[in-house]
Amino acid sequence: MFVRTASAEFFSQILNLHRTVTILFAAIFLVAASLGQASANSRYAAYVMDAKTGKVLFSSNADSRRYPASLTKMMTLYLLFEGMKEGRYKSSSRIPVSARAAAEPPTKLGVKAGGSITVEHAIKALITRSANDISTAVAEFVGGSEQAFARMMTAKARQLGMTNTQYRNAHGLPNTEQYTTARDQAILGIALREHFPQYYTYFSTRSFKFGKQTINSHNRLLGKLQGTDGIKTGYTRASGFNIVTSVQRDGRSVVAVVMGGKSAASRDQHVAALIRDHFPQASRRGGGNLVSAPRPAPRAQEVAAASIALPRRDIPVPSLRPDGEVDMQVAAYIQTQTPPAVAAAAAAMPSRVTPPAAVPVPTASPASDDRFAVDSMSTASIQTSGWAVQIASSTSQKEALAALVRAGKNASGIVSDANAFIEEFNNKGTLYYRARFGFSSKNQAVNACSALKKQKIDCFTSAL
Question: Does 73 participate in catalysis according to the annotation?
Fold first, then answer.
């Protein structure tokens, strides 16, 4: 049984519902550069670096430009950490949330315009929920405006040796002038570890409380892949599924990057396989920091040159419109009225369910070392614990989606804060799609189901 969630890292995130072939690590990555085959995935790139010596342990398309998606928030956090280290603000300092920030599309924390959030909660919201509204609030807080902050981000990237990265926003939502490379993201991951050891532990946050919400992390490698201590996942349709992950154990340390994955599950399986294959090659001895010690954070007036557009090449063309069979009336309704969680589900629906092609992955056997094995669930905002209210079960993913949309329309006050998702279930060879809303407690689920029944919506509750 594979859970596929619809509370994603971007409003148009794909909800990948095809069955994962775990024995092949859901083989959808094409490591063609190393195997001499033509690549079928123009977005794919990967890079594994020994974080103690700087030795490159694996590289494929490492210097080809790619969209960072929510990996962007790593640099947003870098500049926020830098301000804390310099004493310009504390973890208890409050960040105001402007109307512009509050209006950002999901995934978001949902702080209303005119409200505020502490620096510490902002950090956790960026790391776990990948909140776009809080990213913009941080940009305005640190840089004065998101545009000025983006210039600071680009200038800082140059200071760190990220020579092929350019930022235009603080969250990673689509912008054709915002790009990076797998190598540059590895450099940034190592810089975060080396320069801010006092804050780096935030990246291990699996969940945190914010008001009545329990915010769970998108990064399911935490606790699943031994030695993993962060760092960040990301997704837009143009970028595919991205991840930067850090693994430290047995005196060794690596940072691995995978970009352009076809699903969150296969991305995680692929990065786990890369680490399993190459981690033993990492040294237990190191020669000090790999990334130059940071200089003071650049101010907006110091980075005007960073706003100059650099030549663009090797960048995949964005495809931001749904390309499938979601009913046009449903799609129109989604854009204007549906609660964010359900809207994300609908915008994310794939056009059709097709089995993944079997393509090469790193050669180590899945059973060769269970320290580097992960399960096959999707990692994108997954509902991994708590209680579910199920409102429908159908052999049609479209019908399951429609049930979520109807519930969102007719009972928005009941499910507006729930995590809408579709669960794939195989019963005697028949694949069913369960339309569900996730809640953090049994009482919340029971109360929600009772309220839904009063609205003539059949439902039942179950533990996850």
Answer: yes
In a domain, 16, yes or no: no
CATH number assigned to the domain comprising residue 405: 3.30.70.1070
Choose the catalytic residue: 7, 12, 59, 130: 130
From 73, 124, 156, 262, active-site residue: 73
Record the pTM: 0.62
Same domain, residue pair 359 and 267: no
Q: Which domain holds residue 256?
A: 27-287
Mean pLDDT in the chain? 76
- Render pLDDT for 313-342 as a digit per residue (tens, 0 to 9): 343 433 332 222 223 233 333 333 345 555
- The letter for the amino acid at 375 is D
227 and 278 housed in the same domain: yes
Note whether 150 and 205 are same-domain residues: yes
Catalytic residue list contains 70 = yes
Catalytic choice (70, 263, 266, 381): 70
Which of 18-32, 119-133, 330-344 has the weakest average pLDDT? 18-32
Residue 343 has pLDDT above 70, yes or no: no
Place of tokens 């990220």: 162
Q: Is 315 part of any domain?
A: no
Number of domains in the chain: 2
Q: Is 266 a catalytic residue?
A: no
The rounded radius of gyration (Å) of the Cα atoms in the chain is 21
With cut-offs at 50, 70 and 90, classify the pLDDT of residue 256.
Answer: very high
